[in-house]
Amino acid sequence: MTNSLDLSKAPKDCRVVVAMSGGVDSSVVAAMLKAEGYDVVGITLQLYDSGAVPRRAGACCAGQDIRDAKRVSEALGIPHYVLDYEEAFRAAVIDPFAASYVAGETPVPCISCNQTVKFRDLLAVAKDLGADALATGHYIESRALAGQGGRRGLYRPRDLDRDQSYFLFATTQEQVDFLRFPLGAMTKAETRAIAERHGLIVADKPDSQDICFVANGRYGDVIERLRPGAGVPGDIVHVDGRVLGRHEGIVHFTVGQRRGLRIAAPDPLYVVAIDAPSARVVVGPRSALRTSRLTLREANWLGGPLTEAGSDIFVKVRSSRAPAPARLVVDGGRVTAVELLEGEEGVAKGQAAVFYDGVDAGARVLGGGIVAEALPDALRIPAEAPVPLAAAAGG
């Protein structure tokens, strides 16, 4: 017999570390597990100097959030620790974020935060504390894989409006086996109802929406503070080669952007590509945003033998978009590129492409990678036909 976390012990004999951000989701996880009789320990990470970052509604991880986590822990009667991870967070998340933007990319720092500080460093602390599992408030499901000797898989959650699987594709198999996500089968409304039943002070707290260290929502300002002089002026160029104007730095632009171009044109123009070496921002009509091939780096595969995927793969290129039909390109047993069968608009380098075996709740997360190149079709020389996955893998 196993308990609610698929552990073969009575809850009272299981220590579970809960990563507590101070929000309603992780607080409810701690409350649920405590009520079930688990030995719960709450840990909150101090990731940056919140006093140095202007705070607005929707920002996360600031000093108030740490205080909220502590108050919730006190109310639940569980031990709570705050760990200073500022230096590690800067090295693993903030500095690479700035470097990526300077290189003309649009990075997703929440992915690198989960990959390093949370699921590497915090997970190690949980094991040092003798924990049987590390639980978080992410909306994603984790289940044991049949006949896999305790191995676990990740799946899209019941509440697809809250799906956070996009941010967890880089999780290793060893980490997946240790992690638990108790909210995966719940809706946000159900989570808030549980918070109210437990009398948690965060029951009505707004969800965090911004990147925690970009609390004012202006990425360019943060990059220029971290990398003085990064705002090198350059040309704004139409896809047809015409120079339309000047800009003050590529760090103020991202692919798909429409507003803030400051150029007069009879029809709407969008940022189609960013050429960092020449400091050029390439713009064009919306039709020029379409991309059908992505080259990947740092690919992570969680789906078993690659030949299992066949051509029935779905890829999510942005957290807010649904997975769309795609075909993986494999070289030497590694996924190196993705063919987007229906095309996608506004895909930028530095974003993630996450693989699934379906589109609905319960679809398995098969892995993903960071977009190394996403040249729009309007700027790309036609490539050779994609290599079918099964053929490339020798199947």
Automatic annotation (TrEMBL):
Region (Interaction with tRNA), start-end ranges: 162-164
Active site: 113 (nucleophile), 212 (cysteine persulfide intermediate)
Any one of the GO BP annotations: tRNA wobble position uridine thiolation
Keywords: ATP-binding, Cytoplasm, Disulfide bond, Nucleotide-binding, RNA-binding, Transferase, tRNA processing, tRNA-binding
A Gene Ontology term for the protein's cellular component: cytoplasm
Compartments (UniProt record): Cytoplasm
Reaction it catalyzes: S-sulfanyl-L-cysteinyl-[protein] + uridine(34) in tRNA + AH2 + ATP = 2-thiouridine(34) in tRNA + L-cysteinyl-[protein] + A + AMP + diphosphate + H(+)
Residues at the site labelled Interaction with tRNA: 138, 351
Domain called tRNA-specific 2-thiouridylase MnmA-like C-terminal: residue spans: 293-371
Disulfide bond keyword on record: yes
Enzyme Commission (EC) number: 2.8.1.13
Occurrences of domain tRNA-specific 2-thiouridylase MnmA-like central (ranges): 233-284
Annotated binding of ATP, by residue: 19-26, 45, 137
GO molecular function term, any single one: ATP binding
Top enzyme category: transferase
Keyword Protein transport appears in the UniProt entry: no
Record-linked PANTHER family: MITOCHONDRIAL TRNA-SPECIFIC 2-THIOURIDYLASE 1 (PTHR11933:SF5), TRNA 5-METHYLAMINOMETHYL-2-THIOURIDYLATE -METHYLTRANSFERASE (PTHR11933)
Reported function: Catalyzes the 2-thiolation of uridine at the wobble position (U34) of tRNA, leading to the formation of s(2)U34.
Family: Belongs to the MnmA/TRMU family.
HAMAP family the UniProt entry points to: tRNA_thiouridyl_MnmA (MF_00144)
Name of this chain's protein: tRNA-specific 2-thiouridylase MnmA
Source species: Plantimonas leprariae
